[in-house]
Design brief:
This protein is of the alpha/beta class. It folds into two domains: 163 residues, VC0802-like; 175 residues, Rossmann fold (3-Layer(aba) Sandwich), CATH 3.40.50.150. 28% of the residues lie in helices and 31% in strands. The strands form two sheets. Strands 1, 2, 3, 4, 5, 6, 7, 8 and 9 form a nine-stranded mixed beta sheet that branches. A seven-stranded mixed beta sheet has the order 12-11-10-13-14-16-15, sandwiched between helices.
Length: 351
């Protein structure tokens, strides 16, 4: 039996996510590849998907192209509720699922639904699923979602975790984004990786869990963040990770020049707190450090909302060559992931 899934992810990374899905699922057929979401079909059941790039995954029950109504969500709800044939996608719930609620989303914003139509839909789902309605704290959710591309989807939420923004510490990188940044760096089994601004440990944690590498060095100046990083990286993962409270400018006390294969990091987006230097000067200084740390053909993957400051800094270093600039949307803010390669200088006298 084929299943159709709707999966959401960090907006802007659809090409990379599409590539990952095709690599991991040989039979996957991507039906819609959107900014921040995708619809794909596969015979793989949800418990075997094992993707780390998605925020949430839904099982699609029905899709209506071009609803052509002033209220497409309500129109879809009426059509869905008129079905009389049993649908295993609605009724197929494990024993721990006992209650549900109906959610409406219009162009990525939660919206109130017509109360009469909502109650009719709830009765329909309750009959099919034998679940009870719980609008405050349900075990699962049935969504009616309309996207600006001109279609609506009726679907059942499969993931249980809350919005990642609510579950994170202030300034903490979402693990899904950290995973995708690690993927862009393409770590190898003999590689030494570094995050000099590791914060709460999202990048080293995701890298160690899901990618082959020899060793990961994680640094940060904030003692509270370093402590949390220690709690995230435990057991056998700690054998390949060194976590240290240290400043970026003291990094050569721990690592030699030319000693790192990949740097994956999310540096401060504003003034650097330790010295309060101007942003452009800060980026120039850290790029100088990165250039010295990286081995020939090493890779830097950097997340920032300060693309202009980064670009200005890169003009000072002929061996740091930008390869990709991927605009993304993070917590409603525009940012970018930049993939930079270290190349050999044309002349030995040129650094």
């Amino acid at each position: 039996m084929a299943f159709v899934y709707y999966a959401s992810f960090i907006p802007g990374l659809q090409d990379l996510v599409g590539t990952i899905v095709k690599e991991r699922l040989e039979d996957a057929r991507i039906k819609k590849l959107l900014d921040g979401a995708m619809v794909f079909e596969t015979h793989c059941t949800y418990d075997r998907l094992s993707f780390f790039c998605f925020n949430n995954i839904f099982l699609v029950i029905s899709i209506i192209e071009n609803p052509g109504a002033d209220h497409p969500l309500e129109a879809h709800m009426k059509r869905a509720s008129a079905e009389r044939e049993p649908d295993p996608r609605i009724s197929g719930n494990n024993q721990r699922i006992r209650s549900f609620r109906v959610i409406g989303s219009y162009e990525n914003k939660l919206v109130p639904l017509n109360e009469k139509i909502k109650r009719e839909t709830e009765r329909f789902i309750a009959r099919q699923s034998r679940l009870s309605v719980n609008r405050t704290k349900p075990d699962t959710e049935f969504w009616f979602l309309y996207r600006r591309e001109g279609f609506s989807i009726f679907m059942k939420r499969l993931t249980k975790h809350p919005s990642f923004e609510k579950a994170l510490h202030p300034g903490e990188l979402p693990p899904q984004l950290a995973y995708l940044m690690c993927r862009l760096a393409e770590p190898g089994k003999n590689d030494i990786l570094l995050d000099p601004f590791c914060g709460y440990g999202s990048i080293p944690s995701q890298s160690l869990k899901h990618f082959p590498l020899k060793q990961f060095w994680a640094f940060d100046l904030d003692p509270a963040a370093v402590k949390i990083t220690h709690t995230k990286i435990r057991g056998t993962l700690r054998e390949r990770c060194r976590i240290q409270r240290a400043d970026i400018y003291d990094i050569f006390s721990w690592l030699p020049a030319g000693g790192v294969d990949k740097i994956i990091t999310d540096p401060p987006w504003g003034l650097y707190q330790a010295s309060r230097i101007p942003l452009e000067q800060f980026y120039e200084k850290i790029l100088e450090i990165f250039e010295k740390l990286l081995k020939p053909a090493g890779t830097l993957v950097l997340l920032t909302a300060q693309g202009e400051a980064l670009a200005a800094g890169l003009t000072k270093f002929r061996t740091l060559e930008p390869r990709k600039a991927i605009p993304i949307l993070l917590s409603g803010k525009k940012a970018g992931i930049f993939v930079i390669k270290k190349t050999e200088p044309e002349d030995p006298s040129i650094r």
